[in-house]
Amino acid sequence: MSIKPEVVVMGASAGAIEAITEILSGLRERTGAPIVIVVHMPSAKDTHLATLLQNRCSRPIIEVEDKQPLERGHVYLAPPDYHVLVEDDTSLALSSEEPVNYSRPSIDVLFESAADVFSQLILGIILTGANQDGAKGLREILDVGGKALIQEPTEAHCRAMPDAAIATCPDARVMSLREISQYLNERI
Amino acid sequence: MNKKTHDIELRLLLEAIYLKYHYDFRDYSSASLKRRLALALERFDCETISQLQNRVLHNEETLPELLSYLTVQVSELFRDPPYFKALREEVIPHLRTYPSLKVWIPGCANGEEVYSMVILFREAGLEDRTIFYATDINAEALKRAEAGRYSLDRVGLFTENHRQSGGTTSLSDYYTAAYGAAIFDKSLKKRIVFSDHCLASDAVFAEVHLISCRNVLIYFRKELQDRAIGLFRNSLPRNGFLGLGAKESIRFSSHVGGFVDFNPTERIYRRRGDL
């Protein structure tokens, strides 16, 4: 029997809002492992992505503050202009280090630190995007024994990011957004 | 790499640095420390943290450069303009009532925040009655802060930030451009004291009216955050001001009762009077 992930980390870039909305709106209420999401946003700091997504999602959506503890059934969103990392005690820490893959927040930064703390108890998901952020981090998740899902590139608004992830992670499962949502409901 | 081994090595390295050089990173947030150490391993051409530890202990020239990896020095002039706008419009009117003022910028790194503050105080006509303490644990960073020299390609962003913060002068009044760098005017340093101070081990050194410590506490574990906020509390008089980074808060701190919200959106607090 496979082990149930205790945390889900998800990354998306161009086309992110539609894709994430579709996944979150399909989720059942307030159950399941916490989901931590990095979305690349143009550095418009007053975009209220959390509010926008909350309208379509029955789970509480929280913009991460420093040392935020993770709670089951909650969705966490990286704030603009900060990296999000997982601490040893599984709380979320922020960092304003240099951008990675031209991005802050960076998906690789979240995935790598989450893999380090949760090892096989983690599920990583890469969605639509026009760059390669996340491909390295998703590899790391698989290497520590975690699970990996990638959005079907032909369905993605921008297929570069799923393609890059498939290239580094041929052993990840490729799914449509609907299937990802279903997977989260049934398996997590 | 075996994760447990990696964690053991990290602890040993931090202990070694502490015992030999008295720099205390033991309560720094480990997630981002690990990331930056991975970069340091590449730079020093070491395969493991243990190798780096050997080098740090036996070659004293390693540490100053390693410090620049262990501490984060990324900032901008007037980073988060709304914060500086709130200082300008809401905090300055209170500070104006004091005949002399002290401002402390802990973890000043390369000095972007302290120059922003001096410019803001000059625009408000308060510079001449204020002393600015700019402190950091990293001697190299303090030197760079004192030099006040920033890459010219960052100045466009600084200028836009300054404008959005409600700046009443032109930022170009404060620097000269030469050889791809903007060098900030010497006169801005007249009232600044650059000094070595460690939030993990040093004590209160002055009573100050405003502390601006932004994006420093995020690199600390909760225990060390508590120590630092305790120091801030003991450095402020009743009603003194504390400004934190946009995503930092004293909400999770044991000193939360020592402060009252002043501008919650911009993370500006005031010291509560003792009962």
Draw up the topology in text.
The complex is a heterodimer of chains A (188) and B (275).
Chain A lengths: L6 E6 L3 H10 L9 E5 L9 H6 L6 E3 L11 E3 L5 E4 L5 E4 L11 H12 L3 E5 L8 H9 L3 E5 L8 H9 L4 E3 L1 H11 L1
Parallel strand pairs in A: 1-2, 1-7, 2-4, 3-4, 7-8, 8-9
Antiparallel strand pairs in A: 5-6
Helix pairs in contact in A: 1-6, 3-4, 4-5
Chain B lengths: L2 H19 L8 H14 L5 H10 L3 H9 L10 H15 L5 E6 L5 H12 L6 E7 L2 H9 L1 E3 L3 H10 L10 E4 L2 E4 L7 E5 L13 E4 L8 H14 L5 E4 L14 E5 L4 E4 L4
Parallel strand pairs in B: 1-2, 1-7, 2-6, 7-8
Antiparallel strand pairs in B: 3-5, 4-5, 8-10, 9-10
Task: Please give a handful of descriptors for the protein shown.
heterodimer, A: 188 residues, Rossmann fold, two-stranded antiparallel ribbon, 6 helices, B: 275 residues, alpha/beta, 2 domains, 10 strands, 41% helix, globular
